[in-house]
Amino acid sequence: MSTKSIDIPYKIYLSEEEIPQSWYNVRADMKNKPAPLLNPGTGKPMTAEELGVVFCAELVEQELDETTPFIPIPQEIRDFYKMYRPAPLVRAYCLEEKLGTPAHIYYKFEGNNTSGSHKLNSAIAQAYYAKKQGLKGVTTETGAEQWGTALSMACAYLGIDCKVYMVKVSYEQKPFRREVMRTYGADVTPSPSMTTAVGRRILEEFPGTTGSLGCAISEAVEVAVSNPGYRYVLGSVLNQVLLHQSVIGLEAKTALDKYGVKPDIIIGCAGGGSNLGGLISPFMGEKLRGEADYRIIAVEPASCPSFTRGKFAYDFCDTGMICPLAKMYTLGSGFIPSPNHAGGLRFHGMSPTLSQLYHDGLMEAVAVEQTSVFEAAELFARVEGILPAPESSHAIRVAIDEALKCKATGEEKDILFGLTGTGYFDLVAYQKFNDGVMGDYIPTDEDLARGFAGLPKVPGLD
Ligand SMILES: *Cc1c(COP(=O)(O)O)cnc(C)c1O
Predict the structure, then answer these.
(1) What percent of the chain shows pLDDT beyond 70?
(2) CA 26 to CA 355: how far, in whole Å?
(3) The model's pTM
(4) Which H or E run contains 295?
(5) Is residue 392 in contact with ligand 1, taking CB distance under 6 Å?
(6) pLDDT, tens digit, for every residue of 393-404?
């Protein structure tokens, strides 16, 4: 038993009143704003009108707003948040003791809802604005399915229709997720499918493909723009999603402030960048305004290394090349990560906001290999009790690595990381790990060159 005196509780809970009243828009404090979305035909910035064909009107406003620092959270959304928020901030005493580190480790746990992840924070906001606009429903894609589940929950709650295109490899690996979505009333189709023109084109070109997020996005967008009363919604990458996810960071900061803790290092996994963007937002705001400094680390899989090996360039968000172009760290919209990569985080690009912050040297990135991620997940599950999602375990890996560095140097650093979700639907991946048959496919430079070769040539840009 530890004899360490404990003055910070194992879990720092907030009250319902402490759920944020407003989202924080980090772009308002950025000197170099993220580059605008471009119309792929003209090379000109997308107007609100053009974006409104694909996205809900009020979400377009949020997408384009780079000056308003605080955007009030509508009461209906705060009421929904109360069902599963505030999320606890946990001091990982057991992990610290196991590692024998003098570092203090905190994690913000977002897995306490049926979707098993932070995705619900944005799903409810997006479904709310769709309903407010009088739409019949929304379409989307889902990879590891937490987003599809979250959106199904939000749409069921508000009584609107939800059509989900699910990456085929996940559809096959995680059949139970599909049943959760169907229970919430969603219509679920494996992607690529024969139900859309772009799906048929991709299947013809790559028969037997296991699909990708980029490809499922193309299908969902096609269905949204060709059905009256529908719009497309996206669970990550976009500025609006990072805005909604700022509740994670705002709550974490409120909790830490109560105990006067300033994290030295903030760590999050990065797929499209929404949880990390949300977790770091208020801290990054302080950093941008020169009020404080934090070391911020994005963790990505070595199998899909957009930050660490990608190019900062305009690219399509989807494989079918029908979406606007975004300037981001990207592996190319044609990049399809190896199908044996079990842990999600499979998108080829990265949030334009985070890409700009990374480009400006305001945050770091590391890529980690799958087996070392699952080793960290296993250790964490055994000492902290929560079975982590493979995605979240990327952050755990680096939090452990940083805590072990502190052990070597004797530094008592405060480390905060995002525990984005639970891994109950990822047991096929855990099984591979437990059976010792998990592979670590890391793309070669030639693999990446193929993706880069597909980067678009934009009129008026080099
Ligand atoms: C979707 C997801 C991620 C990655 O997405 P981001 O947009 O990068 O946050 C990470 N963890 C979990 C549990 C997820 O569901």
Answers:
(1) 97
(2) 13
(3) 0.95
(4) strand 295-301
(5) yes
(6) 999 999 999 999
Q: Is 39 helix (H, G, I), strand (E, B) or coil?
A: coil
Answer yes or no: is the C-beta of 173 below 6 A from any ligand 1 atom.
Answer: no
**Residues paired with 421 in a beta bridge:** 117
Ordered structural domains, the chain, with CATH = 11-21+81-116+247-452 (3.40.50.1100), 23-71+119-232 (3.40.50.1100)
**Between the CA atoms of 368, 323, 120 and 301, what dihedral angle is there, to the nearest 10 degrees?**
0
**How distant, in Å, are the alpha carbons of 75, 87, 134, 235, 236 from that of 81?**
10, 10, 22, 17, 18
Whole-number Å distance, alpha carbon 280 to ligand 1 midpoint, is 14
Question: For every residue of 208-246, which 3-state class applies, written as one string?
Answer: CCCCCHHHHHHHHHHHHHHCCCEEECCCCCCHHHHHHHH
CA–centroid distance, 270 to ligand 1, in Å, is 7
- Residue 391 in contact with ligand 1 by CB distance below 6 A: yes
Name the residue with the closest Cα to ligand 1, atom 7: 274
Residue 316 and residue 451 in contact, taking contact as beta carbons nearer than 8 Å: no
In degrees and rounded to multiples of 5, residue 84 shows phi and psi of -140, 5
The Cα 83–Cα 384 span in angstroms is 24
DSSP state of 19: S
How far apart (Å, rounded) are the C-alpha atoms in residues 357 and 406?
26
Q: Is the pLDDT of residue 264 over 70?
A: yes
What mean pLDDT value characterizes the chain? Answer: 94
Distance (Å, rounded) from C-alpha 264 to C-alpha 432? 35
- CA-angle at 312, arms to 309 and 314, nearest 5°: 130
Residue 237 CA: nearest ligand 1 atom is: 7
Query: In 184-208, which positions are buried (b, 16+ CB within 10 angstroms) versus exposed (e)?
Result: bebebbbbbbeebebbeebbeebee
Closest CA to 60 of 277, 218, 233, 259: 233
* Ligand 1 centre distance from Cα of residue 2 (Å): 34
306 CA from centroid of ligand 1 (Å)? 15
